[in-house]
Design a protein that fits this description.
The complex is a heterodimer of chains A (about 400) and B (about 260). Chain A is mainly alpha-helical and about 400 residues long. Chain A is about 70% helix and about 5% strand. The longest helix of chain A has about 35 residues. Chain A is elongated and about 100 Å long. Chain A contains 18 helices and four strands. Chain B has one domain: Rossmann fold, CATH 3.40.50. Helices cover about 35% and strands about 25% of the residues of chain B. In chain B, the strands form two sheets. Chain B has a six-stranded mixed sheet, sandwiched between helices. The two termini of chain B are about 25 Å apart. Classes of the chains: A mainly alpha (about 400), B alpha/beta (about 260). The interface between A and B is medium-sized, with 23 and 33 residues.
Amino acid sequence: MWLVFQKEIKELLRDRKTLFFMVALPLLLFPLIFGGVAYFSGKAIEKAQTRVLTYAVIGDEYAPTLSAKITAQDGLKRYVTKIQSDNVSAITNLVKSEKVDFVLVIPNTFNDDILKIGQNKLTLYLNDAGLNMVQRRLNKIIDNLAESNRDKAFISLGIAEEIQQGLLEPIVIDKISTADKREDLGEKIGGLIPYMIFILCLQGAMLPATDIGAGEKERGTLETLLISPISRNQLVLGKFFTIAFAGVTSAMVTVGSLFVWGVLLSQGMAIELITEFMGAISVLDFVLMFAMLIPVVAIFSAVLLSMSIYAKSFKEAQGYMTPLVFIVIIPVILAMLPGIKLEGIYAWVPLMNVALAIKELIKGTMDYMALIPIFLSTTAIAGLLLTFCIYWFNREKVLFR
Amino acid sequence: MIEIKQLAKKFKVENPKKLSEQEKKDPRLKGRFFHSVQNVNFICDTGQVLGLLGPNGAGKTTTLRMLSSALKPDSGSILIDGLDVLANPIVARQKIGFLSGSTGLYGRLSGRENIEYFGKLHGMSKSAIHQKIEELAQLLDLYSFLDRRCENYSTGMKQRVSIARAVVHSPKVVVLDEPTTGLDIMATQTVLEFIRTLKKQQIPVIFSTHHLDEVNELCDTVTVIDEGKTKYNGDLHSFRALSNGSLHNSFMTSIEKG
């Protein structure tokens, strides 16, 4: 068995294509994705914030203070128009034709004295699709004026400062969560991690699995291997462990790379958060997560090997394997749904129970008794599938199709 | 010595609609089963070369696959030096060297590693494998490319390494399934030379072929199979005597007679 395993691994390591997908891609891809997204989104936001906006104001004569403040603001350019405030289609067209970024319509009833007029209503026309930051930049000016008007009103009414706060916000809720940071963050990202690991394990195992089964058939080496004096069980186990090993390695490399680059590229505060978060998860929890992955990977490997040896060619094997990804995704996605917990029947559903357990372990709220159904059900299924795989390898109809 | 008696093998037909016209007409198709091999007998003595002839689809490959224990026969017996292949497939496998025309090599391993792998699977020690490879490399002239990856080999190189791989465990019997089909003249010559070497070493060789000149050159005995049944068994001389013309005529006569 080890003979087969050693040879398959040796062959795998010499395959540049497989190595590239398994190791180089995750190592290089993640920094590129992280860095690229951070760089470009940063650029876009900066551009939206500093870009000179062209604007038109209709009815500025009714609000001289506001108009003066807008004019005084940097990064805004006035566009003079004679359109009347009731001509909505003309205003809309002005924005649509991109002559201006926004049009602010001030009603003739506008008054800085709140006590006389009540609430003032302005109308802002803009293309709000996409990142433009128009409203945020405008709010800075308007909020400023609104606050000073409000303060003036309070003073003229003679209301004390504490009462002012009460009037603005009569009741304030002070929220204290009993969930610590770990549970909170675990709930948010805990569902994503098993999802990623499962898919990566499957993907990483797929390439070698195709090669080891269908590949041998296509190259014509299978027949010779079958008539060498090694029992079928040994042969299947050797191939099975190769696939499982490749799957785990590829997942670990990717997760490791994700973690390392994530830490490196995130900002100072996030590093503190991540290290604190990782530190809260005990070594035992990590070992448990890994231990639970073993039967899962065994399930994947047995299924992949059975498919691969049945297929006549690489192409056929890939055809059989692609739908497998969707089948694996379903229980994992279900495990991400908020209402579903590691209880009752869910603890027995394979894949789903492991996904839920990983989430619980990350959150630090694991019920360790649930490990019994998890290991029982996944190990039983993995064993069953492996037995099937060995049976499958003894079928002439499968080997000589 | 190899003895094959009343060998039979049937395959289940999964989808009768998918069969070709020719297959539907074949008398071997009975209900849900296709009786690929029905009654094949032959004997190959020590130091003899047996040529297995027959049209395409006659059951040659199936017979040889049963002989090499890749397929299990439904009935009949296969004895190698008195050992029952069906009862002890793993022991029997160590006595057989098998090579077919479509055999491939692991492209990402070197020729030496390919041979080593099968040597190890046969339970040979490292030093024994090393010694055997040296011997075979000399015999088959492998030195110039033995340590390069197989994916870049020419057909002839591949065939020579395949031969070395098939006999690394010093088999008692060598079975070759159309070993020269699809090879160029040089590569064919290598295979024929190799069969001669085996003959000198008193190792019985069974090979199937469509080339009658190869039979004429190498074989001591001839077996003709058609529609899964042995139609002719005998030495080359009496095979030639079947008709006064060429071996081709003899072949046709043997099939029509049977």
